[in-house]
Amino acid sequence: MGRILVCAGTGCVASHSRQVTARLKAALHAHHLEERFQVDNTGCHGFCEQGPLVIIEPEGILYCRVREEDVEAIVTEHLEQGRLVERLLYQDPVTKEKIAAYNQIKFYRQQSRHVLKNCGHINPENIDAYLAVEGYQGLKKALALPREEVINIIKESGLRGRGGAGFPTGLKWEYTFKAPGDRKYVVCNADEGDPGAFMDRSVLEGDPHAVLEGMLIAAYAIGAREGYIYVRAEYPLAVQRLRIALAQARERGFCGERILGTDFSCELYIREGAGAFVCGEETALLASIQGERGMPRPRPPFPARQGLWGQPTNINNVETYANVPLILRRGAGWYASLGTEKSKGTKIFALTGKVKNTGLVEVPMGITLREIIFNIGGGILEDRGFKAVQIGGPSGGCLPAEHLDLPVDYDSLTAAGAMMGSGGLVVMDDSTCMVEVARFFLNFTQAESCGKCTPCREGIQQMLAILTRITRGQGREGDLEQLERLARVIKGTALCGLGQTAPNPVLSTLRYFRAEYEAHIRDHRCPAKSCRELLTYHIDPDKCNGCTRCRRRCPAGAISGEAREPHTIDLELCARCGTCLDLCRQKAIYVE
Ligand SMILES: Cc1cc2nc3c(=O)[nH]c(=O)nc-3n(C[C@H](O)[C@H](O)[C@H](O)COP(=O)(O)O)c2cc1C
Ligand code: SF4
Ligand code: SF4
Ligand code: SF4
Ligand code: FES
């Protein structure tokens, strides 16, 4: 029987994939094809920009941006007559070639999808679909081993936490296992607060059982009988799928009392967070689960010794847990063979910004930034010049072209002034102002600071004020040194990771793009022509035909000139709104 997979991840649902599913079911019925084809919903394929996606299996033909009106053509042309519906096929942005098979598309061909393997291919609301792809085999295997042996397997695999800091997972489990206490907890950090990041959401929506299985293996290994998944309430579909998965896992004996007939019992619960970025920090998250205000506290004691309600608690990220069943099933040796010496396995990135293919990509550790951006991502939009890539979320760093061949692993990124973070990767082209980029990210961390400690609360605000002045052309001599001083103090004295890493975008842009800061301060010029208040608008008299369009529409009355004569702009009056630039058909207006 053929399968028609319709993506039901958040991105595709937002572009009406549910209606496509309904229409497909109705069309199969009307064409008497229900015996030959089955419609199934899946989680996100990571290619949301092309959604709603429909895949016809077993051939693996991918149709993109499918609307309800397209369903009839898919049924009559493809299913009945065996002809591809050309107009719905994916078009390679570089070669312009139409590509039919999902696994031939460069975006997918160059990835190593292990954690994301099931996402987009199984129905996440059906436990049998997960069981059919060896689901819960990792748990079965773990339960047959002594706890220490399970911990050793994770240690040998080299798995490091995917939530940001890259702490060795096996070691963390061992600390919790060895910590004194009868009551222990496992916690899954599904807060995912980085703007633009949706790796964890996609895993939860597309393969929720993998995360539950990883948590249950961890619970067994450390000796926990209870666990919590802390997921942001802004992820309603992820919450819904987790609830369904949890109910099914309980029903089938994978969760709850005497799991799989052994004497291991563990209950998992879901807690919804209100979406504060700081609640992703582990001690704030634990406070929030306990019903307290989500504020970080000093560490030590680390959660492995004193976590939830003062008891030893293992906290890992969604992607970290999703790796665990794979390691148990395929072995630590297999896992350790992927990646680099110190960064094993794969990493999922949310590739966004000025790149041709945006979406979720899973790549082996050690791949270069160039391979991700130019091979998988297809290069820069409109074939403009590459300027920088911001990696590691709001506290990450901006790396310039000279680092395109940097291997993507924890240590190389940190040495270059960026960090792995949870997997945000924002590509910037030559029209991006790096001072503005630094200001943008600092604006985010400043707004999200919980205010508990002075260096972060006051210091970030000071840095933001300086950056804002610079982007408005009011920078002063000494500003850059002052920014560096403040950054050093905040990094060294802030209580939690939010403050300690918030200056990173400023420091990395100062390190690689200092001349751009200097141009703003000394010449009152934005080299990228992006900072509005530093731009001047001019009319080229040789190109202007005096059509008067700009003069009639200028909101500041800054343009003068007689009809059919070249016009001029009064820079004193110009409000730099850009209206005239967009209006002029002669391209007579230019910006300096
Ligand atoms: C401000 C801040 C926000 C964080 N947000 C997240 C998050 O959304 N998800 C996450 O897994 N870890 C986040 N972390 C890291 C966690 O504190 C913690 O290190 C992580 O959950 C541990 O899991 P891992 O070892 O599997 O990476 C954040 C840290 C800070 C300082
Ligand atoms: S560093 Fe910032 S977010 Fe962290 S505790 Fe201090 S004020 Fe709160
Ligand atoms: S719109 Fe362009 S061509 Fe027309 S008057 Fe203005 S500058 Fe000249
Ligand atoms: S940028 Fe705006 S304010 Fe300035 S001249 Fe053009 S239309 Fe007028
Ligand atoms: S939601 Fe459909 S591809 Fe991401």
Automatic annotation (TrEMBL):
Q: Name one Pfam family in it.
A: Complex1_51K
Q: Which GO terms describe its molecular function?
A: 4 iron, 4 sulfur cluster binding; FMN binding; hydrogen dehydrogenase (NADP+) activity; metal ion binding; NADH dehydrogenase (ubiquinone) activity
The superkingdom of the source organism is: Bacteria
Q: Which residues form the 4Fe-4S ferredoxin-type domain?
A: 535-564, 565-592
Q: Which SUPFAM superfamilies does the UniProt entry name for this protein? A: 4Fe-4S ferredoxins, Nqo1 FMN-binding domain-like, Nqo1 middle domain-like, Nqo1C-terminal domain-like, Thioredoxin-like
EC class, as a word, reads oxidoreductase
Give the Gene3D superfamilies listed for this entry: 3.10.20.600, 3.30.70.20, 6.10.250.1450, Glutaredoxin (3.40.30.10), NADH-ubiquinone oxidoreductase 51kDa subunit (3.40.50.11540), NADH-ubiquinone oxidoreductase 51kDa subunit, iron-sulphur binding domain (1.20.1440.230)
Q: Which UniProt keywords apply?
A: 4Fe-4S, Iron, Iron-sulfur, Metal-binding, Oxidoreductase
Spell out the InterPro entries in the cross-references: 4Fe4S_Fe-S-bd, 4Fe4S_Fe_S_CS, NADH-UbQ_OxRdtase_51kDa_CS, Nuo51_FMN-bd, Nuo51_FMN-bd_sf, Nuop51_4Fe4S-bd, Nuop51_4Fe4S-bd_sf, Soluble_ligand-bd
Quote the EC number: 1.12.1.3
Which NCBIfam families has this protein been placed in?
Answer: PRK13596.1
Family as reported in the entry's similarity comment: Belongs to the complex I 51 kDa subunit family.
Protein known as: NADP-reducing hydrogenase subunit HndC
According to its UniProt entry, this protein's organism is: Neomoorella thermoacetica (Clostridium thermoaceticum)
